[in-house]
Design goal:
It comes from Spiromyces aspiralis. By secondary structure, the chain is α+β, with helices and mostly antiparallel strands. It is built from four helices and six strands; from the N terminus they run E-E-E-E-E-E-H-H-H-H. A four-stranded antiparallel beta sheet has the order 3-6-5-4, with helices on one face. A two-stranded antiparallel sheet has the order 1-2.
């Protein structure tokens, strides 16, 4: 949401530009060092693994199950619902893997972009999700990602 007005009592008036904005549901929050998230034309990304990522330049990143825009348009009131949708084991694992990839990039001071997250995700597929933050695995993945980003 965008802040439209700030009142003396501390209240805010918020505005959403489109149905793309709404409550954050069906996912998890990751906090990273803000300088690692560069400003870009869009901060809303749908990754090939079926996960949506919203990257805030303040270092706040939301990773969630992919929700097609057509679903949002058909059921506009659902974006304001407090109930999460069913998340399959595969979707849950993809979300956890993306979160661990983002945390890994943060720990190793690598810029966090949709491209670096995709490269890290792809490099991580040979490892268990829980092992991604192991220092040996993280170093191995970081080398692969840095090499791929340099070639990009």
């Amino acid at each position: 949401a965008e802040v439209q007005n700030y009142f003396s009592d501390g209240a805010l008036s918020l505005h959403t530009r489109s149905l793309q904005y709404g409550k954050l549901r069906n996912g998890t929050f990751v906090k990273v060092f803000p300088r690692l998230v560069p400003r870009s034309r869009t901060h809303f990304h749908t990754l090939p693994c079926g996960v949506d990522v919203i990257m805030g330049v303040n270092g706040y990143i939301w990773v969630s199950k992919h929700v097609p825009v057509s679903t949002v348009v058909e059921n506009a009131e659902a974006i304001y619902s407090n109930k999460n949708e069913k998340i399959s084991d595969q979707e849950r694992e993809a979300i956890a893997r993306v979160c661990n990839c983002i945390t890994l990039l943060d720990r190793l001071f690598i810029k966090i972009t949709d491209t670096s997250v995709i490269y890290t995700y792809e490099a991580s597929l040979g490892h268990n999700v829980k092992d991604l933050l192991n220092s040996e695995v993280a170093s191995e993945l970081a080398e692969q990602v840095r090499a791929r980003l340099a070639a990009h």
